[in-house]
Design a protein that fits this description.
By secondary structure, the chain is an all-alpha fold. The protein has a single domain, classed as Four Helix Bundle (Hemerythrin (Met), subunit A), CATH 1.20.120. The chain is built from 4 helices and no strands. Helix 2 (about 40-70) packs antiparallel against helix 3 (about 75-95). The longest helix is centred in the middle third of the chain and has 29 residues, at about 40-70.
């Protein structure tokens, strides 16, 4: 069973960003499924790396739009992105070094952060970007 299922209330009305959010959810679900199935550290590490890389790609894309169109909440949004990246890199470092394992608490954190960020902070830029012709 998926940790997160895409729902229309997650849309930010920017096709490329919605597509990226769906991909993030897919990778997160793959990580969750692997964890629940007891997959080996190598598999989980690979999927966690993929999640980290895709998250960085996605954040860079959003932030490029913010800078291009002078989104008024850019600094706050970038700080939220940086905070998540730092937290996930800590999880990855601890996982790779054997200090911690992936737990349902970690997965719940990722789920809550992503879904709350999409329906909160990301929805806030929808009308701004749409008004700039980004759809």
């Amino acid at each position: 069973m998926a940790l997160v299922t895409w729902h229309s209330n997650y849309t930010v009305n920017v096709k490329e960003i919605d597509k990226q959010h769906q991909q993030l959810i897919s990778i997160m679900n793959e990580l969750h499924d692997g964890m629940k199935a007891g997959k080996g550290k190598e598999v989980l590490s690979r999927v966690l790396d993929e999640l980290i890389k895709y998250t960085a790609f996605h954040f860079k894309y959003e932030e490029m739009l913010f800078d291009k169109f002078s989104y008024p909440d850019t600094a706050v949004h970038k700080r939220q992105h940086a905070d998540l990246v730092q937290q996930v890199l800590e999880y990855k470092e601890n996982f790779d070094s054997g200090k911690k394992i992936l737990t349902i608490e970690v997965m719940d954190f990722l789920k809550e952060w992503l879904t709350n960020h999409i329906v909160g902070a990301d929805k806030n830029y929808s009308s701004f970007l749409n008004g700039k012709g980004v759809v």
